[in-house]
Amino acid sequence: MSEKSSKLNIVVEDFLSETVARKLIREFGGRYEVSQCFGKKGFPFIKANLQAFNNSSRINPYLILTDLDDKRCAPSLKKDWFTFEKSKSLLFRVAVKEVETWLLADRMSFSKYFGVSEREIPEKVETIIDPKKFVTDLAKKSKKQKLKEAVAPREGSTVKVGPDYNGAMSLYVEKHWKPETASRFSNSLKRAIGCLKSFHGTDH
């Protein structure tokens, strides 16, 4: 950590979102280093504790990353969640529709990693209704047997993802995903990157 950098806490829905948040901070928030990570219990935990995080951010800044999922739009989600004044030190970003969308938006890197044609991934990734299912369906078409077994649920299984979904997707984020490239096809990612670039610290 450089002398000018400071601590930034993050709050996320799950393990994959944590990997994404850490990568974004490393690449586009170089002034900051992750101090603590909270959450990984889905959006209900984030919503229930939002005011506490908001208050804490006035001392140490926070980045909160949540998925839009089936909500109408990010502004309506924020209006619903923030029944109090948001601290300037709280960075609240919404992935449209899920953090997987941001990963799919780097179409070339994703297709190479998954061993599928780039044509399988639409340019307008934010219109994909269920990005996680889209990813697991892509994995079923993969030429890479190990990746297919890790990401896609087994035939007849009731689970939605494969046994090492988080591991395989996190490896992609760490080694192959290019956020700047992806931001050209995801407005919510572009705004998140812009937010990190322009952020200057706590309220005080």
Fold and architecture overview:
This protein has a 4-stranded parallel sheet with strand order 2-1-3-4. It has 11 helices and 4 strands, in the order βαβααβαβααααααα. It folds into 2 domains: 6-96 and 186-198, Rossmann fold (3-Layer(aba) Sandwich); 101-182, no CATH class. Helix content is 46%, strand content 13%. The chain has helices spanning 15-28, 43-48, 50-56, 74-81, 99-104, 107-114, 131-140, 145-151, 165-175, 179-182, 187-198; strands at 6-12, 32-39, 62-67, 90-95. The chain has 204 residues and is α/β, with parallel strands linked by helices.
Features:
46% helix; alpha/beta; single chain; Rossmann fold; 204 residues; 4-stranded parallel sheet; 11 helices
List the helices and strands and how they pair.
Layout: E1 6-12, H1 15-28, E2 32-39, H2 43-48, H3 50-56, E3 62-67, H4 74-81, E4 90-95, H5 99-104, H6 107-114, H7 131-140, H8 145-151, H9 165-175, H10 179-182, H11 187-198
Parallel strand pairs: 1-2, 1-3, 3-4
Helix pairs in contact: 1-9, 7-8
In short, what is this structure?
This protein is an alpha/beta fold. It has helices at residues 15-28, 43-48, 50-56, 74-81, 99-104, 107-114, 131-140, 145-151, 165-175, 179-182, 187-198; strands spanning 6-12, 32-39, 62-67, 90-95.
CATH structural fold name of the largest domain: Rossmann fold
The CATH class assignment of the largest domain is Alpha Beta
Tell me the strand order in the biggest sheet.
2-1-3-4
Radius of gyration: 17 Å
What fraction strand?
A: 5-15%
Helical stretch tally: 11
Mean pLDDT comes to: 94
Biggest sheet, open or closed, and with what strands and sense?
A: 4 strands, parallel
Note the overall shape. globular
Oligomer: single chain
Structural class: alpha/beta
The helix-strand sequence is EHEHHEHEHHHHHHH
Tell me the total number of β-strands. Answer: 4
| N/C terminus separation | 22 Å
Number of domains: 2
